[in-house]
Amino acid sequence: MIINFLIIIQEYISEERFYENIKWIINRLPEKTKLIFVNGPTLDFFRKNNPHCPEVREQIKRINKVLDKIVTENKGKCALVDINKVIKSTNDVTDYVFHLKAQTAYNLFVEIVWAIVRNFKNIKSSMLASVRTDRKVVIYGNSSEARNAFYNLKLGGESPIAYFHFNYSNKKIGTMEVKNSIELKDKASQYYVVIADENNISNIETELEAYGYKPQTDFTRLQKVEYKKMWNENISGGDSLKINNVLIQ
Fold first, then answer.
1. 165, containing H or E segment
2. Is residue 3 within 8 Å of 38, Cβ to Cβ?
3. Which of 63, 65, 82, 216 is most buried by a 10 A CB count?
4. pLDDT over 50 at 238, yes or no
5. Whole-structure pTM value
6. 154: closest CA among 127, 136, 188?
7. How far is Cα 81 from Cα 104, in angstroms, rounded to an integer?
8. Could you tell me which of 116, 42, 147 has the C-alpha nearest to residue 85?
9. CA 129/CA 127 separation, integer angstroms
10. Is 89:43 a contact under the CB 8 Å cutoff?
11. Contact criterion met (CB below 8 Å) for 183 and 191
C-alpha cells in the first residue's frame, strides 16, 4: 500500500513531468500493490512568515489536476484522498500549510481509511474471519480507543456494527451505534467482541465472562503494536521503494 504525500519544492515540476514520473512508478509496481494519493492543500496560506504565496498555491492546484487524471485512468489501482476535506482553515495547521495539527492528522487518517475501504475491497480475507464465524463484530471500550479500534478493524476487512460501554452516551462512532454493555448479555452466539480499553481490561473480561462469553472464542483484546520505521531505498530488487520518506511495499 502506498500513501504518497505531495511535496512542493522550490523548483516547480511541470505537470507533464509529474505525470510521467507517477506513470513510471505505477508501471514498475507489482500488480497487487495499490496506491493512495493524498493531494495538496489549496488553502490560501503558505507559512507563518510568508502567509500568502500564490505561486505555490497555483502549483498545488496544477499538480492536483494531474493526480485527478492519474486516479481516473487507474481505477482499481489508485485512489485519491482530498486533504482539503480536513484542511479547511488556518485552525487546522500550525506554522506551515503542510504541518497538520494533531486532530487534523487524525482526520486525515480517517479519510485514508475510508479511501481504502471504498476503493480496495476484498484485498485480503477479514482479520477475524477464523474466530468470529458468522457473528457480528462489536467493540467494547472507551470512546477514544473504540474509535481507533473501529478504523483499524475496517482496515482489516471487518465491519463493527456497535460499540458497547458501561458508561455510555447514545451517539455514533464511525458507523457504529453506541449501546449499554448490558445488551451483550447471553448474546455470544450473535457477537464477537473486541476489547479496546487498556485501563479496564480485567473488569470488562470479567463482565463478558459473566454474560456467557469465553476468552478468545467469543472475545479478544485489541493489541497495540509498536511502530517502527523501516526504510529500503534499493528499488533494483523490487522489494520496496521510498518516495518522500514513505515506504512502498
1. strand 162-165
2. yes
3. 63
4. no
5. 0.76
6. 127
7. 14
8. 42
9. 6
10. yes
11. no
